[in-house]
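user: Kindly work through both lines:
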Amino acid sequence: MKDKNGMGHLAALFTIVVWGTTFISTKVLLRNFQPVEILIIRFVIGYILLFLAKPGLIRLTDRKQEWVFAAAGLCGICLYYLLENIALTYTLASNVGVIISAAPFFTAILSKIFLKEDGHMRVSFFLGFAVAIVGICMMSFSGSETLKLNPKGDILALAAAFVWACYSVLTKKISGYGYSTIQNTRHMFGYGILFMIPAAVAFDFRLGLSRLADPVNLLNILFLGAGASALCFVTWNMAVQILGAVRTSVYIYIVPVVTIVTSVLILHEKITGTAALGAGLTLAGLILSEGKIEFRKERESAL
């Protein structure tokens, strides 16, 4: 059991490290692509790669499961990214970074309501959440940007955090169906891409594959499609299956830390003392939240 939990933690950590670096590729691609174009192309690439890795369609044992897959694709693949990208057009990136970090809190609440787990979170989970949020605020607002509320953008970012929590809970439910994690992820991707079609029309999507003739664009879109989408959604879903939705979701706290470290190493940006202290607090919040979450079922099995 310990080895299995260790694999779950490693999968979650790996996923977050990769996702924390995707801003660089996205920033490069935004010079030639619209956000919705990047989103659709990366997930189409991810879908194709997952199909090649595990060909064949899922034979569902219950047709009602299709609705759960559709909801997961809508929340985690379509709505989350669209809400986050639109939020960035109305509010500061620092605001979005802080607000998105509320996802573990929403995940904890939804898990208790919908996963039928007779469990509760200790005070340390909420203490860890508070410590992590303080740390993330210190990192986000340590530079030239100052806190400035933008209701429309901030509400959209909060909605993005909520739908990601929904995705985490739905993924946990799907993991109990007994299908392959790769096939589960691909099936969700398919629905996510389908739900993106209206957004593609609304935002004037154009394929423009000639833009991928530029090696820089090609390498970055492949990184987003193969690494951040196909591989990382599989490892994230695997972590959720092993650790549960709540314990996996708290790794989201690390994203700003990875982003800062990547900015220093790759973009040669400077890190302030406040940001460094914030990173430390964020990691401390993760440890508090991760180490003290327990469920009665687990305690009963131990007895």
